[in-house]
Automatic annotation (TrEMBL):
Pfam families: PP2C
Recorded coiled-coil stretches: none
Superkingdom field: Eukaryota
Signal peptide residue numbers: none
The protein's name in its UniProt record: PPM-type phosphatase domain-containing protein
CDD domains: PP2Cc
Cross-referenced SUPFAM superfamilies: PP2C-like
InterPro entries: PP2C, PPM-type-like_dom_sf, PPM-type_phosphatase-like_dom
PANTHER family according to UniProt: PROTEIN PHOSPHATASE
Record SMART domains: PP2Cc
Gene Ontology molecular-function annotations: protein serine/threonine phosphatase activity
């Protein structure tokens, strides 16, 4: 769902089921584009072609923009594999309690890595920490001008899905800036339809 930003929608999503080698896969992802949606659109079309491992192949060929990503692959309804780059987040609801499965890649948390690559983290009063004074995340895809100082290495988590897990929320940072994980879970827990829950 689009927020109230003053620029065109730059986010993309994937939500589909497919059968691969006798395994039923649920494929879900949110891509939060910035400075244009080219990278987010590219990731949307190539997500499950090993793109997380081959990002250097295409990063230099796209425009100046970039994207964060949070992905979830549900394998046979039992095993959930979550990978993220940036500050889009995956949260599951287990017996009413929120559990974050992804890692927010904030510049202040990864300052040492950024500085080891020759970059810097600005911390201007009234603003959030930014890589080289520009980007508010320490990891992203694309961003050609900052590529030397950023990482596109995903964090990966595996969760076994049992009867205690009620649902998963995938969302970009726009949601998490205004709601805690638990608030997000409680706001939709009573809604059974996923499309209705997404529009709350």
């Amino acid at each position: 769902m689009k927020g109230k930003s003053n620029h065109a929608m730059e986010d993309c999503l994937v939500s589909e089921f497919k059968v691969v080698d006798d395994n039923e896969l649920g494929l879900f992802a949110i891509f939060d584009g910035h400075m244009g949606h080219d990278v987010a659109k590219y990731l949307q079309g190539h997500l499950f072609d090993n793109i997380l491992k081959q990002s250097d192949f295409w990063t230099d060929t796209l425009g100046k923009g970039g994207s964060t990503a949070v992905t979830a692959i549900l394998i046979n309804g039992h095993k959930l594999v979550v990978a993220n780059v940036g500050d889009s987040r995956a949260v599951i609801c287990r017996k009413g309690a929120a559990k974050q499965l992804s890692v927010d890649h904030e510049p202040s948390k990864e300052r040492q890595l950024i500085e080891s690559k020759g970059g810097f983290v600005s911390n201007i009063p009234g603003d959030v920490p930014r890589v080289d004074g520009q980007l508010a995340v320490a990891r992203a895809f694309g961003d050609k001008s900052l590529k030397r100082h950023l990482s596109s290495e995903p964090d990966i988590a595996v969760e076994i899905i049992d009867d205690d897990v009620e649902f998963i929320i995938l969302a970009s940072d726009g949601l998490w800036k205004v709601m805690s994980n638990q608030e997000a879970v409680e706001s939709i827990r009573s809604i059974k339809d996923s499309h209705s829950a997404a529009s709350v």
